[in-house]
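Box 3.1 A note on notation
Throughout this textbook, protein chains are presented in two layers. The first layer is the amino acid sequence; the second is a C-alpha coordinate string describing backbone geometry. Keep the layers aligned when reading.
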Amino acid sequence: MINGKRIAVVMPAYNAEKTLQATVGEVPELVDVCILVDDHSKDQTVDLAHRLGLLVFQHDRNYGYGRNQQTCYREALAAGADIVVMVHPDYQYTPSLVPAMAGMIASGVYDMVLGSRILGSGALKGGMPLYKYISNRFLTAFQNLFLGVKLSEYHTGFRAFSKDLLETLPLLENSDDFVFDNQMIAQAVMFGFRIGEISCPTKYFEEASSINFKRSVEYGIGVLTTTASFVAHKWHLRRIPRFDPTGRKITQNYYSALAHRP
Protein backbone atom coordinates (compact mmCIF):
# COMPACT_ATOMS: atom_id res chain seq x y z
CA MET A 1 0.00 0.00 0.00
CA ILE A 2 0.91 3.65 -0.45
CA ASN A 3 -1.01 6.32 1.47
CA GLY A 4 -3.57 3.67 2.42
CA LYS A 5 -4.25 2.80 -1.22
CA ARG A 6 -4.20 -0.86 -2.27
CA ILE A 7 -1.88 -1.55 -5.22
CA ALA A 8 -2.31 -4.28 -7.83
CA VAL A 9 0.19 -5.25 -10.49
CA VAL A 10 -1.42 -6.85 -13.53
CA MET A 11 0.41 -8.85 -16.18
CA PRO A 12 -1.24 -9.49 -19.56
CA ALA A 13 0.55 -12.68 -20.60
CA TYR A 14 0.97 -14.77 -23.72
CA ASN A 15 3.77 -17.34 -23.92
CA ALA A 16 5.74 -15.59 -21.16
CA GLU A 17 7.24 -18.68 -19.53
CA LYS A 18 10.87 -17.74 -20.27
CA THR A 19 10.73 -14.27 -18.73
CA LEU A 20 7.98 -14.44 -16.11
CA GLN A 21 10.11 -15.48 -13.14
CA ALA A 22 12.63 -12.66 -13.71
CA THR A 23 9.79 -10.15 -13.97
CA VAL A 24 8.01 -11.35 -10.84
CA GLY A 25 11.33 -11.35 -8.97
CA GLU A 26 11.50 -7.56 -9.25
CA VAL A 27 7.93 -6.83 -8.14
CA PRO A 28 8.26 -4.77 -4.92
CA GLU A 29 6.86 -6.08 -1.64
CA LEU A 30 4.53 -3.09 -1.25
CA VAL A 31 2.33 -4.53 -4.03
CA ASP A 32 -0.79 -5.99 -2.43
CA VAL A 33 -1.85 -8.35 -5.22
CA CYS A 34 -0.16 -9.54 -8.41
CA ILE A 35 -2.52 -10.79 -11.12
CA LEU A 36 -1.62 -12.62 -14.32
CA VAL A 37 -4.16 -13.02 -17.12
CA ASP A 38 -3.14 -15.65 -19.63
CA ASP A 39 -4.43 -15.27 -23.19
CA HIS A 40 -4.43 -19.00 -23.95
CA SER A 41 -0.65 -19.49 -24.03
CA LYS A 42 0.90 -22.49 -25.72
CA ASP A 43 3.73 -22.82 -23.19
CA GLN A 44 3.81 -23.34 -19.41
CA THR A 45 3.08 -19.72 -18.43
CA VAL A 46 0.05 -20.65 -16.31
CA ASP A 47 1.77 -23.45 -14.38
CA LEU A 48 4.74 -21.22 -13.62
CA ALA A 49 2.49 -18.34 -12.54
CA HIS A 50 0.76 -20.63 -10.05
CA ARG A 51 4.11 -21.78 -8.66
CA LEU A 52 5.17 -18.15 -8.24
CA GLY A 53 2.06 -17.45 -6.18
CA LEU A 54 0.28 -15.14 -8.62
CA LEU A 55 -3.48 -14.78 -8.84
CA VAL A 56 -4.12 -16.37 -12.24
CA PHE A 57 -6.97 -16.04 -14.73
CA GLN A 58 -7.14 -17.84 -18.06
CA HIS A 59 -8.92 -16.99 -21.28
CA ASP A 60 -10.54 -19.95 -23.00
CA ARG A 61 -9.02 -18.85 -26.31
CA ASN A 62 -6.65 -16.20 -27.64
CA TYR A 63 -8.70 -12.98 -27.55
CA GLY A 64 -5.86 -10.51 -28.10
CA TYR A 65 -3.78 -8.03 -26.12
CA GLY A 66 -6.55 -5.47 -25.69
CA ARG A 67 -9.05 -8.00 -24.39
CA ASN A 68 -6.40 -9.34 -22.05
CA GLN A 69 -6.03 -5.88 -20.51
CA GLN A 70 -9.77 -5.58 -20.06
CA THR A 71 -9.71 -8.75 -17.95
CA CYS A 72 -6.65 -7.51 -16.05
CA TYR A 73 -8.33 -4.29 -14.97
CA ARG A 74 -11.67 -5.87 -14.22
CA GLU A 75 -10.11 -8.48 -11.93
CA ALA A 76 -7.82 -5.93 -10.27
CA LEU A 77 -10.82 -3.79 -9.37
CA ALA A 78 -12.66 -6.89 -8.15
CA ALA A 79 -9.65 -7.56 -5.89
CA GLY A 80 -10.09 -4.14 -4.28
CA ALA A 81 -7.27 -2.26 -6.02
CA ASP A 82 -7.11 1.53 -5.76
CA ILE A 83 -4.09 1.76 -8.06
CA VAL A 84 -3.36 -0.67 -10.90
CA VAL A 85 0.05 -0.94 -12.57
CA MET A 86 0.39 -2.89 -15.81
CA VAL A 87 3.72 -4.70 -16.11
CA HIS A 88 4.47 -6.80 -19.18
CA PRO A 89 5.78 -10.19 -18.07
CA ASP A 90 8.36 -10.23 -20.88
CA TYR A 91 10.89 -8.38 -18.66
CA GLN A 92 11.21 -5.50 -21.13
CA TYR A 93 10.38 -3.00 -18.37
CA THR A 94 11.62 -3.24 -14.79
CA PRO A 95 8.93 -3.58 -12.08
CA SER A 96 11.33 -1.76 -9.75
CA LEU A 97 9.65 1.48 -10.83
CA VAL A 98 6.20 0.37 -9.67
CA PRO A 99 6.47 2.27 -6.33
CA ALA A 100 7.42 5.50 -8.08
CA MET A 101 4.59 5.24 -10.60
CA ALA A 102 2.01 4.19 -8.01
CA GLY A 103 3.19 6.96 -5.71
CA MET A 104 2.49 9.59 -8.34
CA ILE A 105 -1.13 8.43 -8.37
CA ALA A 106 -1.40 7.85 -4.61
CA SER A 107 -0.33 11.46 -4.09
CA GLY A 108 -3.46 12.61 -5.92
CA VAL A 109 -1.45 14.46 -8.56
CA TYR A 110 -2.07 12.11 -11.52
CA ASP A 111 -4.70 9.63 -12.67
CA MET A 112 -2.48 7.85 -15.23
CA VAL A 113 1.30 7.51 -15.26
CA LEU A 114 3.28 6.33 -18.28
CA GLY A 115 6.74 4.81 -18.12
CA SER A 116 8.40 6.64 -21.00
CA ARG A 117 11.21 5.05 -22.98
CA ILE A 118 11.89 8.38 -24.69
CA LEU A 119 12.56 10.57 -21.66
CA GLY A 120 16.29 10.37 -21.11
CA SER A 121 18.23 8.40 -23.71
CA GLY A 122 17.32 4.80 -23.01
CA ALA A 123 15.26 3.71 -26.01
CA LEU A 124 17.94 3.26 -28.66
CA LYS A 125 20.55 2.21 -26.10
CA GLY A 126 18.14 -0.45 -24.90
CA GLY A 127 17.92 -1.86 -28.41
CA MET A 128 14.76 -0.28 -29.82
CA PRO A 129 14.88 -0.75 -33.63
CA LEU A 130 15.53 2.53 -35.44
CA TYR A 131 12.35 2.31 -37.53
CA LYS A 132 10.30 1.93 -34.36
CA TYR A 133 12.01 4.90 -32.76
CA ILE A 134 11.37 7.10 -35.80
CA SER A 135 7.72 6.04 -36.08
CA ASN A 136 7.32 6.55 -32.32
CA ARG A 137 8.52 10.14 -32.59
CA PHE A 138 6.35 10.89 -35.63
CA LEU A 139 3.16 9.40 -34.20
CA THR A 140 3.74 11.07 -30.83
CA ALA A 141 4.19 14.51 -32.43
CA PHE A 142 1.06 13.92 -34.53
CA GLN A 143 -1.05 13.00 -31.52
CA ASN A 144 0.29 15.81 -29.34
CA LEU A 145 -0.86 18.23 -32.03
CA PHE A 146 -4.40 16.89 -32.38
CA LEU A 147 -5.05 15.75 -28.80
CA GLY A 148 -3.79 19.03 -27.38
CA VAL A 149 -1.39 17.55 -24.81
CA LYS A 150 2.39 17.17 -24.64
CA LEU A 151 3.63 13.66 -23.91
CA SER A 152 7.04 12.23 -24.74
CA GLU A 153 5.43 9.03 -26.06
CA TYR A 154 2.07 7.27 -26.36
CA HIS A 155 3.32 3.75 -27.05
CA THR A 156 4.83 2.41 -23.84
CA GLY A 157 3.39 -0.73 -22.29
CA PHE A 158 4.36 0.25 -18.72
CA ARG A 159 1.44 2.16 -17.16
CA ALA A 160 -0.28 2.94 -13.87
CA PHE A 161 -3.93 3.91 -13.38
CA SER A 162 -6.24 5.12 -10.65
CA LYS A 163 -9.37 3.18 -9.78
CA ASP A 164 -11.51 6.16 -10.81
CA LEU A 165 -9.99 6.23 -14.29
CA LEU A 166 -10.51 2.50 -14.85
CA GLU A 167 -14.12 2.68 -13.72
CA THR A 168 -14.85 5.73 -15.90
CA LEU A 169 -13.28 4.97 -19.27
CA PRO A 170 -15.44 2.93 -21.73
CA LEU A 171 -12.72 0.31 -22.13
CA LEU A 172 -15.05 -2.28 -23.65
CA GLU A 173 -15.36 -0.04 -26.71
CA ASN A 174 -11.65 -0.41 -27.49
CA SER A 175 -9.81 -2.74 -29.83
CA ASP A 176 -8.82 -6.27 -28.85
CA ASP A 177 -5.44 -5.63 -30.51
CA PHE A 178 -2.33 -3.60 -29.63
CA VAL A 179 -3.90 -0.22 -30.46
CA PHE A 180 -5.93 -0.64 -27.23
CA ASP A 181 -3.02 1.07 -25.44
CA ASN A 182 -3.25 4.14 -27.64
CA GLN A 183 -7.02 4.32 -27.48
CA MET A 184 -6.84 4.29 -23.69
CA ILE A 185 -4.60 7.36 -23.60
CA ALA A 186 -6.87 9.19 -26.04
CA GLN A 187 -9.84 8.33 -23.82
CA ALA A 188 -8.04 9.64 -20.73
CA VAL A 189 -7.39 12.94 -22.53
CA MET A 190 -11.01 13.18 -23.72
CA PHE A 191 -12.35 12.56 -20.20
CA GLY A 192 -10.00 15.11 -18.62
CA PHE A 193 -7.82 12.78 -16.57
CA ARG A 194 -4.34 13.95 -15.56
CA ILE A 195 -1.45 12.10 -17.21
CA GLY A 196 2.11 12.05 -15.88
CA GLU A 197 5.29 10.43 -17.15
CA ILE A 198 8.40 8.92 -15.64
CA SER A 199 11.59 7.91 -17.42
CA CYS A 200 12.12 4.14 -17.57
CA PRO A 201 14.78 1.95 -19.15
CA THR A 202 13.77 -0.73 -21.61
CA LYS A 203 15.36 -3.89 -22.95
CA TYR A 204 14.95 -5.52 -26.35
CA PHE A 205 16.03 -9.16 -26.60
CA GLU A 206 14.86 -12.36 -28.24
CA GLU A 207 12.39 -13.42 -25.57
CA ALA A 208 10.87 -9.94 -25.12
CA SER A 209 7.52 -9.34 -26.77
CA SER A 210 7.82 -7.12 -29.80
CA ILE A 211 5.46 -6.89 -32.76
CA ASN A 212 6.93 -7.38 -36.24
CA PHE A 213 7.08 -4.78 -39.00
CA LYS A 214 3.70 -5.70 -40.49
CA ARG A 215 1.95 -5.49 -37.13
CA SER A 216 3.80 -2.24 -36.43
CA VAL A 217 2.36 -0.74 -39.61
CA GLU A 218 -1.13 -1.91 -38.64
CA TYR A 219 -0.63 -0.37 -35.21
CA GLY A 220 0.48 2.93 -36.77
CA ILE A 221 -2.64 3.03 -38.92
CA GLY A 222 -4.70 2.32 -35.82
CA VAL A 223 -3.07 5.26 -34.03
CA LEU A 224 -3.94 7.61 -36.90
CA THR A 225 -7.51 6.29 -36.93
CA THR A 226 -7.81 6.74 -33.16
CA THR A 227 -6.65 10.34 -33.48
CA ALA A 228 -9.11 11.04 -36.30
CA SER A 229 -12.00 9.59 -34.28
CA PHE A 230 -10.94 11.65 -31.24
CA VAL A 231 -11.11 14.84 -33.30
CA ALA A 232 -14.44 13.84 -34.90
CA HIS A 233 -16.02 13.24 -31.50
CA LYS A 234 -14.55 16.33 -29.85
CA TRP A 235 -15.72 18.58 -32.69
CA HIS A 236 -19.19 16.93 -32.65
CA LEU A 237 -18.79 15.68 -36.20
CA ARG A 238 -19.62 12.13 -35.20
CA ARG A 239 -20.50 10.31 -31.97
CA ILE A 240 -17.79 7.77 -31.14
CA PRO A 241 -18.85 5.32 -28.35
CA ARG A 242 -15.21 5.00 -27.26
CA PHE A 243 -15.21 8.66 -26.23
CA ASP A 244 -18.78 8.86 -24.95
CA PRO A 245 -19.64 8.60 -21.23
CA THR A 246 -22.37 6.08 -22.07
CA GLY A 247 -19.87 3.66 -23.64
CA ARG A 248 -19.50 0.16 -22.18
CA LYS A 249 -17.27 -0.12 -19.11
CA ILE A 250 -15.35 -3.05 -17.63
CA THR A 251 -17.44 -2.99 -14.46
CA GLN A 252 -20.58 -3.92 -16.41
CA ASN A 253 -21.90 -7.50 -16.43
CA TYR A 254 -21.46 -7.68 -20.21
CA TYR A 255 -17.88 -8.84 -19.71
CA SER A 256 -18.26 -11.16 -16.75
CA ALA A 257 -18.05 -14.45 -18.66
CA LEU A 258 -14.86 -13.78 -20.63
CA ALA A 259 -12.44 -14.84 -17.91
CA HIS A 260 -12.55 -17.61 -15.37
CA ARG A 261 -10.49 -18.93 -12.53
CA PRO A 262 -8.72 -22.21 -13.34
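Residues 254-262 have pLDDT under 50 and may be disordered. Residues 7-251 form a domain with the Spore Coat Polysaccharide Biosynthesis Protein SpsA; Chain A fold (CATH 3.90.550.10).
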